[in-house]
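Posting this for the archive.
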Amino acid sequence: MLGMGGGAAAQGAAEGAAGADGAALFAENCASCHAETRLGGTGPALIPETLGRMMGPALEQVIAAGRPATQMAGFGGQLSPEEIAAVAAYIATPLTETPRWSLEQAAQSREMSAEYRPAPAPVFTGDPMNITLVVEAGDHHISVLDGDSFEVLDRFATPFAVHGGPKFSPDGRFVFVMSRDGWVQKYDIWSLQVVGQIRAGLNSRNIAMSADGKWLAVANYLPQTLTILSTEDLSVVKVLEVVARDGRPSRVSAVYQAPERQSFVLALKDAPEIWEVTTDPEGGPFHDGFVHSYEASMEESLGAEKGLFARRRIAIDEPLDDFFFSPDYRDLIGTNREGTKGEVINLDVGRKIAELPLPGMPHLGSGISWMRDGHRVMATPHLKEGVISVIDMSDWHLVQTIAMDGPGFFLRSHEASPYVWADVFFGPHKDEMQIIDKQSLEIVRRLVPEPGKLFAHAEFTRDGRYVFTSLMEDEGAVIIYDAQTFEEVKRLPMRKPIGKYNVWNKITFDDGTSH
């Protein structure tokens, strides 16, 4: 009887889903974020090629309940189970034509500004190394903020829905930003002018700058590639198809710069591998298969790569995401798909050396490190639990979990500051910033500038004297605090300022900033 009842229920759900118009429901509820084409906007592309294993009941659950730590709200209160099933079925349906984005198409999209004139020196009087960029999601602009005078020097339009942190050239002069739909824009801070832009993919995750400043890597969900651009003129110099050893294509969750290693490090979404792509012309050789040698100068191997952009595969037990690195970039810490633990991968030997107790979806990408009692520690917030985990990086033991007033998203500090600034991004305390003493690990102050409004993401000035924070509302503000007294110094109106990035802190890889 139970079997028959279950079958009847399933049949009824299927008939209900068939009766609902998934395409119309998608257009009404989802297209504003994911685009009518389903190729992504502020939200990611929703097609089988980018959904991976998220199909059927798993996809319906996300539509109904939303996704933590994203802008994806649940529709369980607006749509019936049958309507949700119809939307999921529509999303899982392949497009009539598989979207492609070839090297030629990317090259044709490249646009360099005819008005751009490089200035021989900064056109402003402030310290060019103390510039902070403010990404304003409310109307897709970036404000260029002088860190000394707090004056807005310029405000320029960006591509739609900038995603991931901007990346600066090693000399701090140029900055590159990327949008969800794959556009990469170059801006000259000295000249306060846009240089040009190119579309490097259709649905992209983030960008990374090579240590020598010559190359910019773009991590793509669609197509499943790593696109490498010349920072000089934004031309495409290399497109790497991301295919695992077993032949399975994979999305690229993120790409990171490993400056000490002269390489890019890739997190693969759909395969138990980490890729390292060298930016050293003398890099490699890297061997995909077995290697043996019977006599001097004689070597046999499978899939050897060497030279500029040669790829090295590192096999792991399961896909890892959201990487954090030790300051020397020898060790990588990633989290598993379920967000229940952390794993430490030594990049020199290419294997796991430790496992960390990090339940509650650690947000390692915003983790930071500092020296405490003669030991380097790292700290990470958790997206599903109101704690910050502090780990001793000498032996990878858990030092302490700091109880917070809710799950957080960002941590920031500065080498000149004794404090960590941590937001409470989710829940009823989203209007709160908690300030933590680096040595005692105690919360010493709670700041609530506007009750009920989202207050998040701190960034320090070059010298660590001031902290810029975001009131992340459409009619929001950057609120500037004295880093020692925690007193408000100034408030600058902004359109949903979601992130702030100081030139000096980023190009020097300051301990207090995420990398």
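The longest strand covers residues 215-222. The domain at 22-92 is CATH 1.10.760.10 (Cytochrome Bc1 Complex; Chain D, domain 2).
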